[in-house]
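protein under study:
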Amino acid sequence: MQPNTPAGENIPTRAAARAAQHRKRSLILLAVILSLAVAIAVVLGILFLRGAADEPQTAPPSADECLPSGLRVTADPAVAEALEAIVADLPGSGSNCPDVTVRAEDSAVTAAALAAGSAPDFDVWVPDSAMWPARVTGQAELTGVDAADLVVGATVATTPVVFAATEPTATALQTEGAGFASLAGRTVAAVLPDPATVAASSAALLALQTALGGDARSFTALALALDTGVVPTTTDALATASAATTPTIAVTTEQAVLEQGDDAAAPLVPVYPADVKPEVSVPLVTLAEASGDTLMAVDALAAAITDAGDQLAEYGLRDAEGNAPGSTPEAAEAPDAAAEPSDGANQAEVLRTWQVLTAPSRMLSLNDVSGSMLQPATADMRRIDLFEQAAVRAVNSLSPDSSLATWVFSSRRIGGQDWQEIVPFGPLGDPAHKQRTIDTANGLDSLVGGGTGLYDSVLAAVQYMRDAYVPGQINLVLLNTDGYNEDDDGLDLPGLLTQLEALRDPAKPVAVIAIGYGPDTDQAALEQIAAATDGAAYQALQPTDIGTVLVDAVTQRGCRPNCG
């Protein structure tokens, strides 16, 4: 008979049984969690692989692969040859791969066609400046044209804007640290290719505006002075500077100077401005509707250009960062000579301002010949005498393509009418018309008499200019007076302002630039008349002010009412 076995040695206790059950449940739960984790990882992996397969590949093709799409490239002549050399080295070039063709066309021509609503005939546009796409957008918005939606990509090449000069002139400019602000000193003549067609010139205008601290009055004066030195093309500008017998600069690009022909009268060298250092930046511009394959091909082209710094340098261009070609030691040795990119939108805006400033004027000169104009202004001169002298100066300050008419006013000159036409409109480029205008100005004293029929005359002049409005010109009335309205039978000031407001048309603006001579003028009325027409009001309190104020009013015509 076996002895009794103690119960506690082989039979589990209740607590031990519960612990064993707890361990079993934990192992089962752990197994479930691990299974779920593996399942989730598998599912996520499948989804990732599917998504990766669905996404377009962004990596450019390798050196032995074809581009995914052909490209039609329209490029400015300044970059077209460099692009052709780079395109020749693209993957698959010369094989059965899709073609990349480069067509040269001036950026201004392409921009004008796009702004007019023409359908793009390119996949990639390579203008010589980011200003041109901005101009397309601005012009299309201004005219209400449905133009192509352009996407401006990264810059692929640059070239600084410089002053091209002969060696002696360049040495003198560098010695004095000349920059755009120096142009105000008129120590050298400046030749500017037409800013409407040459991007370097609009970049230079933006630099000039910046150098002058945004002072609209100073910028206008210099812009009008530069207008006399405008030539059609960069080639013309370089030829003029090269052949000049007095210190002359051509405002152009470093690339243009490096590539000037051997037939120049005297070789030119680039002078890098000491203050503002603009550059023109070359972007790749695509269409918003471009396909994925086209955009991949454009990326490949951009990558090829980025890697082709030596080829860009062969054509006088710098890379996107502005690194100088080895042939320009002046720039390479000067760490502060790095160019500053010009903002495309601001460059397009300064071009618009330039075109307004330099547009030919169509000006009706409305002159007070009331009896008070015979009052003495100095010991030996009357008000009318001083005005006559100033008027001749003002006429001579206008460009030959401007046109001018002369009216006078005083009370009841022709029956009940206060105004009278003395010289009808004609171009100042016509020597006979200009001389007749000057002779009339010199003889205004013979027409003096009567009261100041101001308000009716102003309304008649503005109405006439609105009826005879000429697009593309600055249409304005230049009012010269020395007194208050004295015609009690005509309009009062509120009536005149109401009529002027009714005539206002932003599409056909006719500004009144009013000048009050002496302390007896109703300057408050002149200011209200000017404000109602987006014009400006001046006052010449001293006899010596008359000439300065009148010439200033004429030359500031394009920036009103924001001349400062």
In short: The two ends are 127 Å apart (CA to CA).
